[in-house]
Recover the amino acids of this structure.
């Protein structure tokens, strides 16, 4: 992207946000491909933005595979750690990461990222090839004090065998975190299940695509998300996008999911839906069993955890309500 184009985008987004008053500020994420192939542009754009007062709060983020974080780049990022965050993809133990990314976890400055940005989350992508190491990968990272967010790879064709393996992996995770007296519990097991009890008639939109989030391509063209760009989609999708109201949740609701109990906790990729099935709303149903396993494991873990609390002390009102919802969710999922 030309430097002038990048400056124009940053300035426009900041002033638009400030004048609209809809959001408190702007997060700018440098995406790829691999964004550090253009480190000089990132550095120059950030320093230009920081050089004068801006009309609303903002922060920069770099989402990288970490392989290009040499000493000089690390030094620059560390010196500006209060204004820019480095997020690194770490797909579990070494073999898992090598399968997904083609390099070793040990080649990445994971501890440096954790030291500079203690609240940063490491993003783990679970593919069919790494599924059998999912639990081990999560435990190995969380036990080292890292915050991990895991998600299923988009575009995989999940099978019944994968569902069975995913069940084993979540059972192992649940068993492990039930057994430890001290230490951190993986945050995903404590995820709120309140969306399961949202009885609104429209299915929740599961990301900010085209609404609270947009992506700019190298030529400055604006897209709802990176998945819609020609680099990722492999085609010009602008004609397909014309006239779509991305702020209307009804546009993203799959009629086939209308009666599903877990519909508001499932994730989908709207760009992939449009590319593969010609509709933003029509979801990949091969992932349904995987999400049912995941959400079921979260509900049963929270139920058992709160029951254990109730045996030794009185639950707070909020805990009692959460236990009631976890029990109801487990019952619904076991029907």
């Amino acid at each position: 992207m030309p430097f002038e184009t990048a400056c124009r985008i940053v300035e426009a987004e900041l002033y638009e946000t400030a004048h609209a008053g809809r959001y408190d500020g702007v997060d700018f994420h440098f995406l790829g491909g691999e964004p550090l192939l253009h480190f000089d542009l990132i550095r120059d754009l950030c320093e230009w933005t920081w050089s004068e007062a801006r009309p609303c709060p903002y922060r920069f983020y770099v989402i990288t595979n970490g392989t290009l974080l040499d000493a000089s780049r690390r030094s620059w990022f560390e010196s500006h750690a209060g204004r820019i965050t480095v997020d690194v993809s770490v797909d579990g133990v070494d073999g898992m990461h090598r399968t997904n990314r083609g390099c070793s976890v040990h080649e990445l400055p994971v501890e440096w990222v954790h030291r500079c940005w203690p609240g940063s989350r490491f993003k783990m992508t679970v593919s069919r090839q790494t599924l059998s190491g999912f639990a081990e990968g999560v435990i190995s990272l969380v036990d080292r004090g890292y915050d991990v967010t895991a998600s299923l790879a988009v575009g995989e064709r999940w099978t019944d065998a994968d569902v069975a393996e995913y069940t084993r992996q979540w059972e192992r995770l649940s068993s492990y975190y039930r057994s430890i007296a001290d230490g951190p519990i993986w945050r995903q097991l404590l995820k709120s299940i309140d969306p399961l009890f949202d009885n609104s008639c429209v299915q929740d939109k599961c990301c900010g695509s085209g609404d609270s989030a947009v992506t700019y391509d190298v030529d400055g063209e604006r897209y709802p998300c990176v998945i819609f760009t020609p680099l990722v989609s492999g085609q010009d999708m602008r004609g397909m996008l014309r006239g779509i109201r991305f702020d209307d949740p009804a546009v993203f609701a799959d009629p086939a999911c209308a009666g599903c109990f877990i519909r508001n906790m499932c994730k989908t990729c709207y760009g992939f839906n449009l590319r593969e099935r010609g509709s933003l709303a029509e979801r990949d149903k091969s992932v349904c069993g995987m999400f049912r396993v995941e959400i079921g494991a979260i509900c049963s873990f929270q139920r058992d955890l709160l029951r254990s609390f109730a045996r030794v002390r009185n639950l707070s009102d909020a805990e009692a309500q959460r236990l009631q919802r976890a029990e109801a969710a487990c019952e619904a999922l076991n029907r």
The chain has a mean pLDDT of 93. The longest strand covers residues 58-64. The longest helix spans residues 288-310.
